[in-house]
Amino acid sequence: MSSDDNVTPLRPRRPCPECGKQSARETYPFCSTRCKDVDLNRWLKGAYVIKARDDEEETDPDEPK
């Protein structure tokens, strides 16, 4: 019995969100530095956006109504 059999992983292995391969410990949750960089590039370009509703008015809470 090796000592590796008694080690519990800190995080479960999951598929890479970019390509679907198994994630690597060094680049978790991605499988490689390449996939990690692809995701970072999308963030920097603004590809990941949380859409806001157009019907919400921007109001200042200190402004009298």
UniProtKB/TrEMBL annotation:
<dbReference type="InterPro" id="IPR013088">
    <property type="entry name" value="Znf_NHR/GATA"/>
</dbReference>
<comment type="similarity">
    <text>Belongs to the DNA gyrase inhibitor YacG family.</text>
</comment>
<keyword id="KW-0479">Metal-binding</keyword>
<protein>
    <recommendedName>
        <fullName>DNA gyrase inhibitor YacG</fullName>
    </recommendedName>
</protein>
<feature type="binding site">
    <location>
        <position position="16"/>
    </location>
    <ligand>
        <name>Zn(2+)</name>
    </ligand>
</feature>
<feature type="region of interest" description="Disordered">
    <location>
        <begin position="1"/>
        <end position="23"/>
    </location>
</feature>
<dbReference type="Pfam" id="PF03884">
    <property type="entry name" value="YacG"/>
</dbReference>
<comment type="function">
    <text>Inhibits all the catalytic activities of DNA gyrase by preventing its interaction with DNA. Acts by binding directly to the C-terminal domain of GyrB, which probably disrupts DNA binding by the gyrase.</text>
</comment>
<keyword id="KW-0862">Zinc</keyword>
<feature type="binding site">
    <location>
        <position position="35"/>
    </location>
    <ligand>
        <name>Zn(2+)</name>
    </ligand>
</feature>
<dbReference type="InterPro" id="IPR005584">
    <property type="entry name" value="DNA_gyrase_inhibitor_YacG"/>
</dbReference>
<feature type="binding site">
    <location>
        <position position="19"/>
    </location>
    <ligand>
        <name>Zn(2+)</name>
    </ligand>
</feature>
<comment type="subunit">
    <text>Interacts with GyrB.</text>
</comment>
<feature type="binding site">
    <location>
        <position position="31"/>
    </location>
    <ligand>
        <name>Zn(2+)</name>
    </ligand>
</feature>
